[in-house]
Known about the structure:
The protein is α+β, with helices and mostly antiparallel strands and 374 residues long. The chain has helices at 11-40, 46-52, 98-113, 145-152, 157-176, 216-219, 235-239, 246-262, 272-281, 297-306, 318-329, 334-344, 347-350, 353-358, and strands at 56-57, 60-68, 72-79, 85-91, 122-127, 133-138, 142-144, 179-180, 189-194, 197-203, 210-211, 226-227, 368-369. The protein contains 14 helices and 13 strands. α1 runs antiparallel to α9 (272-281), α5 runs antiparallel to α8 and α8 (246-262) packs across α10 (297-306). It is globular and about 55 Å long. The model is unreliable at 1-9, 25-51 and 352-374 (pLDDT under 50). The structure holds adenosine-5'-diphosphate (ADP) and magnesium ion (MG).
Amino acid sequence: MAEHSGTRKHPKRTSSVLVVLAALARAFRWLLMRAAATLDGGFGTPDAAAGLGTGRFGQYTLHEKIGEGGMGVVFRATHALLGRPAAVKLLAGGHGSREQLARFEREAELTSRLSHPNTVAVYDFGRTAAGTPFYAMEYLDGLDLQSLVELHGPQDARRVAHLLAQLAGALAEAHGMGLVHRDVKPANVMLCERGGSHDVVKVLDFGLTKELGVSAENDGAEDDRVIGTPLYLPPEAILSPERVDARSDLYAVGALGYFLLTGEPPFVGGSLAEVCAQHLHAAPVPPSRRGIRNVPPGLEALLLRCLAKSPEQRPESAAALRAALLELAARWTEAAARVWWAQHGCVESHRSPRLLESTSRVAQAPTLLPALAG
Ligand SMILES: Nc1ncnc2c1ncn2[C@@H]1O[C@H](COP(=O)(O)OP(=O)(O)O)[C@@H](O)[C@H]1O
Ligand SMILES: [Mg+2]
């Protein structure tokens, strides 16, 4: 029978848990150091960034803040000459460390290489007179998938398949170019109306992307560190980050789909250690056994395959996953999406201060953690 929670007393498992616990102590120390740097003004705060965000950024006039994550702050903006709406992202605090600045520039450069319709389009990269780097991208007048579930609860299974198929399509392009996103999570995927289509997915935040076949010094991503958000971390990212590949993103897609369907990530816990131990050892409870009704067995089986501990047991590629999802998504129609947006599409309500405050700390936790392994 499947094991659903925690770890049993087993020598091998106990030693992996010890490895995780030892590493957590280092992670905690690192987080404390980062907090201290913030107090020093070294890393800065979103409020400091909000101060920076007034006025002109290159050709862009900044308006209100529309989002923030572990690293950046995003403002609604308008191109001064074209009048075109845009979103401008800058590092939280404006001036980061050299590593953060390099990572930020790399994020803009990598994203601009991608042209899939389900990946956010980058328009421009620039620096303010004070040298603060920023990039402008298409403005998405919708909500991210974290907010979708927080505001509107678990989603219809047909819609989940429809959204995940688009996400898998965007990842297929990135993977085909040797890029692994490494931070697929609900807050990094937007849902919006675009060009008359409802329920269009856009993948964001390629800040932690790894370039396969490029050495760690050259790709600007530190492979000796565990990268990603704990709730969506594949086991190999916890134990041996250098083994992360395209299939690691598929694990996160499975975890994200599980969250959309049930309203909860597959593994939750009171601490980083508990969550990581479950990614390593616990079998996820099938959504249908969590009281979620009308889950197509095919979708459940596919999500659980994505969540396989061993990358070999996951779908072979993002393209294969997309093909399987498209079959399951066929019953989610444009008409059904239009009805949802007519009932819930008041964008202002997606951006209330309540929403920003309610976003869970774990979901918004820093996405870069020091090495957990060895
Ligand atoms: N182009 C955009 N249009 C509208 N909202 C956006 C856009 N890009 C990001 N956001 C919002 O800002 C939040 C943070 O952006 P993100 O790029 O993920 O920053 P970070 O690197 O700090 O995690 C997202 O979760 C989303 O809600
Ligand atoms: Mg993000």
